[in-house]
Amino acid sequence: MVEMALSITLFVFLLLGLVEAGRYAFLLGSLANAAREGARYAVVHPYAATSEIIDRVRQSVAGMNRDQLTISVPNPPRLPGTYVTVAVSYPFRSVLGPVLSGTVWGISTMRVP
Amino acid sequence: MGRGQSVVVVVLALVALLAVLGLALDGTNVYRARRILQNAADKGALAGSLLIARNRGIVEITRGQVWGEVSRYVRMNGGNPDKAVAYLVVNEDCDGQVEEDPTDGVDNDGDGVLDEDPGSFGNPDLRMDASNIAITGVVPIDRSVEGVWVTTTGDVTVLFGGFLRRTSETVRARARADIRAVGGIPPGQGVAPIAVHYEVVRRARRGDTITVWDGYNYQVTLTTSGGSSTNYGEPSNPYSGWLNLGWIHNAERETFENREVDQSPGTNELRRWFSQGSPQSVYAGPISEPPNPPSTRGDFIFGDPGIRTTVLHEIRRLIGRTFLFIVYDRWHTRNDLNQMFPTHGDFPEKIFFHAIGFVAVTVTDVRSGGAVKYVRGTFQSFTTAGSAIPGRGLACDDMMARTVSLVE
């Protein structure tokens, strides 16, 4: 019985760890995609306002609270030959506590043609 | 815990684990597919537009050839041409007037009407796909075509989407590449320090001859391939200029490449610029026609009317070479610029040519002695890498040096 209780506890922690790893991987992919969408929009619209690019990034994320996104975008005009870096971050709070929590980043850099 | 109860816990836990793992894997797969399709759409649109840009005004090409190029690049970049659709971007305002940027609300040509964005997406008459191209492929591409839209679609199998009763997810990507007057040329890329008024370029066609005179009332003569000639310019309104590229003002790039410094170039430097291309980048701004106020974007390059005699000798050695002449819409005095840029310090005592694009000219003849001198050349078609910014150049123009780049 004691062995079962111990092994179940361990098992549940392992299980939650795997679930959280999956959630982390999903956030990572979603933020990378959103940053890429934002950077692409910024380089094909060099005079677009920063707010337009931020909206584009917000629309591109899924499965997270958009109000908690932090988005960094360079201001226009984005001159030909220069590089545009869009960075998106989101707080990852694990159910396993602060040890496995942190900030997830998605960063994309593209060159203005 | 009773016998067999742990099995229930393990099964429930495994279901939860598989669901979250599935979400991560399927999400990653969908994003990956989306990225590949976007890449395929981007490359297809760029390839189609580039084919049009390189041939427009030179040889006739058809929709079939454009679709062939689009589908080839879609396939090479991981997309499926059978699930791709392309639309031609058509500018129905091919009136030879200046191009307008539909997003900035500025009436560049002063005709009281804002040109609309030549979207054309979804127009069945402009559609190209694997099924209709057998019929529409023979339709020629005309001057009004200014770009290509491409959409690509793909189905991604979602392994764990079964929880939501979905076996596949449809992913779409869309891109548009436009052909426009090139916005900037980097150093050493063949820009010659000669400016020509855009009225001359507006009326020119490939193969026409341009003669830039010195000591002849600052005139420029355009001779068509049919032999008829037209003169432009007068002493009070020069239609050509010799540019001292040592001092360039650009409100968006004041400190860029240290261009806004009087470098007092000597004759040898001017010669070198001619033989090796401008040592500075040159950036075009939007055209502005009276009665509109002059544009404040783009390069203002100081120079003199006409063409400098001292280097005509140098050009004689370079007959047969193709140069990019700078196209300008207006020239300004120091007082003009002081008013246009009131927060800038005082400008030097010169006249400033406002660059709005480039035109490729192959030099065929030079006369560097006597009272009347000139450089003569033939207009060429020229496409290069660069940025396609709306509002630059002339609508549906074949002569201004052009570029292709993604705009959507």
Brief overview, please?
The complex is a heterodimer of chains A (113) and B (408). By secondary structure, chain A is α+β, with helices and mostly antiparallel strands.
Description:
- The complex is a heterodimer of chains A (113) and B (408).
- Chain A has helices spanning 2-44, 50-60; strands spanning 70-72, 83-92, 102-111.
- Chain A has 113 residues and is α+β, with helices and mostly antiparallel strands.
- In chain A, strands 1-2-3 form a three-stranded antiparallel beta sheet.
- In chain A, α1 runs antiparallel to α2.
- With 408 residues, chain B is an alpha+beta fold.
- Helices cover 24% and strands 29% of the residues of chain B.
- Chain B contains seven helices and 17 strands.
- Chain B has helices spanning 5-55, 63-76, 133-136, 198-203, 267-276, 312-316, 334-340, and strands at 84-90, 127-129, 145-157, 168-181, 184-185, 191-197, 209-214, 220-223, 229-232, 240-249, 282-283, 300-305, 322-332, 351-367, 373-379, 383-384, 402-406.
- In chain B, the strands form three sheets. A six-stranded mixed beta sheet of chain B has the order 2-1-3-4-17-16. Chain B has a five-stranded mixed β-barrel with strand order 6-10-12-14-13. A two-stranded antiparallel ribbon of chain B has the order 5-11.
- In chain B, α1 (5-55) runs antiparallel to α2 (63-76).
- The A-B interface holds A 1, 4, 8, 11-12, 15, 18-19, 21-23, 25-26, 29-30, 32-33, 36, 40, 43-47, 62-63, 77, 79-81, 112-113 and B 1, 6, 9-10, 13, 16-17, 20-21, 23-24, 27-28, 31, 34-35, 38, 103-104, 183-184, 186, 252-253, 256, 283, 385-389, 403, 405-408.
